[in-house]
Amino acid sequence: MVVTNEKSVSEAIKYRRSVRVFKNVPIDEQKVKECIQLAALAPTSSNMQLWEFYHVVSPEMIRQIATASFNQNAAKTAQQLVVVVARKDLWRKRVQSNIDYLKNQYGNKPESDYSKREKFALNYYQKIIPSLYFDFLGIIGMIKFITFQIIGLFRPIYRQARQSDMRIVAQKSAGLAAQNFMISMAAINYDTCPMEGFDSLRIKKLLHLPARSEINMILGCGIRDENGVYGERFRIPFEEIYFKK
């Protein structure tokens, strides 16, 4: 989708840096939108796609979000912003979307005509996923957690079944999408900076987000200033983090 002079994946990963200061040079809204479309192709747990992306191009909105982000340079000098939002609260809607998609793929035939594999796939979204995401004041989640720990004494079992666990699942998927976006931007020589320092309540009000949504990160977008990258890249020696078993 994004055109001309693209870097390879390896080149884009090496080029990407967290840019703290952007040049006062406009960037193409359509190209940024195309990178968001690529972000939405990221892997996501059970294909639930519990994310939303808010593409902020209004200078006034950027200014207000920068203020709520403590006026850090990566927000204040950004030409555009992308706010990645985790939406665990949309799990019922996303489950139904997957069910509708599967039934359409199977030819919208009577359930009695489904193959064993097709029944398994539908059962996954009709029963298993709801059993993981449904909760009531955290009580059901804790019951599931304790039950699964007991079963786990005798056989392997999925143990993360509390509200907090499913929240982490949604945040991990949103983070994968954000990484897709940043690498896609780097491939076309656009720069980004992922930010976690902000007043989430104020920004949710600015974007009219529901209370149960959660901002995963805010991404400043633009073209790096000569002094926009603060120093050489530092990484822990690979030997300290790589373990072959």
UniProtKB/TrEMBL annotation:
Q: Which Gene3D superfamilies match?
A: NADH Oxidase
Q: Transcription regulation among the record's keywords?
A: no
Stored InterPro entries: Nitroreductase, Nitroreductase-like
Coiled-coil intervals: none
Q: Which UniProt keywords apply?
A: Membrane, Oxidoreductase, Transmembrane, Transmembrane helix
Please give the superkingdom of this protein's source: Bacteria
Molecular function via GO: oxidoreductase activity
Question: Is RNA-binding given among the entry's keywords?
Answer: no
- What residue ranges are annotated as transmembrane? 132-154
| Boundaries of every Nitroreductase domain copy | 13-222
| Pfam families xref list | Nitroreductase (PF00881)
Q: Which family does the record claim for this protein?
A: Belongs to the nitroreductase family.
Name the PANTHER family for this protein.
NAD(P)H NITROREDUCTASE YDGI-RELATED (PTHR43673), NADH DEHYDROGENASE_NAD(P)H NITROREDUCTASE XCC3605-RELATED (PTHR43673:SF10)
Q: Could you tell me what this protein is called?
A: Nitroreductase
